[in-house]
Design brief:
- By secondary structure, the protein is of the alpha/beta class.
- The protein is built from 15 helices and twelve strands.
- The strands form three sheets. The protein has a six-stranded parallel β-sheet, with helices on both faces. The chain has a four-stranded parallel β-sheet with strand order 3-4-5-6, sandwiched between helices. The chain has a two-stranded parallel ribbon with strand order 1-2.
- Strand 4 (98-101), helix 5 (110-113) and strand 5 form a beta-alpha-beta unit.
- The longest helix has 16 residues, at 335-350.
- It starts with a helix and ends with a helix.
Length: 351
Amino acid sequence: MEQGGVESVVLSLSRLLTRAGHENVVVSRGGKLVATLEQEGSRHIPKDPTSTNPLSYFARAYKLRRLLKSEKPDLVCVHSRVPAWLFVWANRSLRLHFITYAHGANSVSRYSEVMTKGELTIMPSRFIADYLKANYPVPEEKLRVIPLAIDFERFNPAALDEAFVAEKRREWGTEGKRVIMAVGRITQLKSFDELIRAFSKLKDRASKKLVIVGGADKDKEEYLASLKTLACELTAPGEVIFAGAQSRVPECLSLADIVVSSNVRKPEAFGLSMAEALAMGKGVVAKAFGGALDIVRDGIDGVLVKDGDFVAAIERALTLDYSTVSASARERFNESVMLSKTLSAYEEVVR
């Protein structure tokens, strides 16, 4: 529970379920998002269901079984592969109802196939549903596409911490600049190197800033260093800002003109940061694959890159009018719709 798309989904689901009067318990190895989780009414049980150490597998599965036997949940929802395998073993004699959440297009293998073994499998986009059907013997009737919702209390252009916004504007030097922003954890998957190269080729670059919002885990610090070196080689000092992890993402987004999802390597299941950018009234540039196809309407919400030319896409996106995208996002990624569809799936399994 540190940062990332899956963690955001867990937080969103937890908040909606507790508001609807359900008891929600999250089992994870912990992290900075646990405080928010508990403040919003969920209970957190600290355990490590994600370790890939095979020597401790059965010991951890046995501990999970004891926990499940004690908690007696009506329904278990599993959000990644290692916890799913632990649960399958722990649940052999308990026979608890369970649903799997397929958050991504994982490599095709028996190891990944476990994410289709729930009584239902929920995914955030049609892309993931089609991917699972193409690679595993999972029937359509077991799949439920439920688009992710946005917390519009947070992502509200009219409810910003203006002092924080002003501070970041000074810190990043964005006054009078067109701001191109990327939001996401620093990993090779996000292709931030491609974004830096594209930014370096933009026309009239002196009037623009590239701001990359996102932290790097310890095993990605070398990649972050390589990105900073690349920015120094291709751009002038101060043109590319590495903002690090930020807790006030809406305020950061408010400083952007457009937001770029530069991932070209592996399609994202949904791309919550893209939807959040739209909620803040910002256009989005993204490659035309994966979850982006469910979020970005080309020429309306931003630009879908079909030919690999991010330079032309960014320059086109900076010319479009985004005055209506925030209101549209409120209709398309509404929490009440997500909650209704989620509870319908849960009740279908339990009853």
